[in-house]
Amino acid sequence: MGERFAGIDWWCDRCGAYLNSQSGFNDHKYTWKCTECGFKNSISRDNIYESHEDFFSRKNKDDD
User: What gap in Å lies between CA 7 and CA 5, rounded to an integer?
Assistant: First the structure.
Protein backbone atom coordinates (compact mmCIF):
# COMPACT_ATOMS: atom_id res chain seq x y z
CA MET A 1 0.00 0.00 0.00
CA GLY A 2 1.43 3.38 -1.02
CA GLU A 3 1.31 6.64 0.86
CA ARG A 4 -2.08 8.23 1.39
CA PHE A 5 -0.54 11.69 0.95
CA ALA A 6 2.30 11.07 -1.49
CA GLY A 7 5.02 13.71 -1.44
CA ILE A 8 3.86 15.34 1.81
CA ASP A 9 6.37 15.93 4.61
CA TRP A 10 4.89 15.65 8.09
CA TRP A 11 6.36 17.50 11.07
CA CYS A 12 5.45 17.29 14.75
CA ASP A 13 3.20 20.17 15.79
CA ARG A 14 4.86 20.33 19.21
CA CYS A 15 8.60 19.75 18.77
CA GLY A 16 9.07 20.08 15.00
CA ALA A 17 10.56 16.59 14.52
CA TYR A 18 10.31 15.11 11.02
CA LEU A 19 7.66 12.40 11.29
CA ASN A 20 8.10 10.69 7.91
CA SER A 21 11.45 9.22 8.96
CA GLN A 22 10.28 7.93 12.35
CA SER A 23 10.27 4.16 12.63
CA GLY A 24 6.87 2.75 11.67
CA PHE A 25 5.42 6.05 10.42
CA ASN A 26 2.39 5.43 8.23
CA ASP A 27 0.27 8.27 6.83
CA HIS A 28 -2.70 5.90 6.54
CA LYS A 29 -3.07 6.29 10.31
CA TYR A 30 -5.15 9.27 11.36
CA THR A 31 -2.86 10.17 14.25
CA TRP A 32 0.84 9.66 14.83
CA LYS A 33 2.52 9.81 18.21
CA CYS A 34 5.86 11.56 17.77
CA THR A 35 8.71 9.33 18.91
CA GLU A 36 10.67 12.41 20.00
CA CYS A 37 8.18 14.13 22.33
CA GLY A 38 5.09 11.89 22.50
CA PHE A 39 2.68 14.44 21.01
CA LYS A 40 -0.23 12.94 19.06
CA ASN A 41 -0.31 14.63 15.65
CA SER A 42 -3.32 14.56 13.34
CA ILE A 43 -2.47 13.14 9.91
CA SER A 44 -5.22 14.50 7.65
CA ARG A 45 -5.79 16.65 4.58
CA ASP A 46 -6.83 19.49 6.94
CA ASN A 47 -3.25 19.61 8.22
CA ILE A 48 -1.46 20.03 4.91
CA TYR A 49 0.07 23.48 4.49
CA GLU A 50 1.99 25.08 1.65
CA SER A 51 4.82 26.14 3.96
CA HIS A 52 5.89 26.52 7.59
CA GLU A 53 4.87 30.18 7.34
CA ASP A 54 1.35 29.18 6.23
CA PHE A 55 1.10 26.77 9.18
CA PHE A 56 2.18 29.40 11.69
CA SER A 57 -0.07 32.12 10.26
CA ARG A 58 -3.12 29.83 10.44
CA LYS A 59 -2.15 28.65 13.93
CA ASN A 60 -1.89 32.28 15.11
CA LYS A 61 -5.37 33.01 13.70
CA ASP A 62 -6.79 30.03 15.59
CA ASP A 63 -5.18 31.28 18.83
CA ASP A 64 -6.87 34.71 18.56
Answer: 6
Please give the Cα distance from 49 to 8 (Å, whole number): 9
> Of 1.20.120, 2.60.40, 3.40.50, 2.30.30, which CATH number belongs to 1-64?
2.30.30
pLDDT one-digit tens code per residue, 3-39: 898 999 999 999 999 999 999 999 999 999 999 999 9
| Predicted structure pTM score | 0.78
Q: Give CA–CA dist 39/31, Å, rounded.
A: 10
How many percent of the chain have pLDDT more than 70?
A: 88
Structural contact between residues 19 and 8, judged by C-beta atoms closer than 8 angstroms: no
Return the CA Rg of the chain. Answer: 12
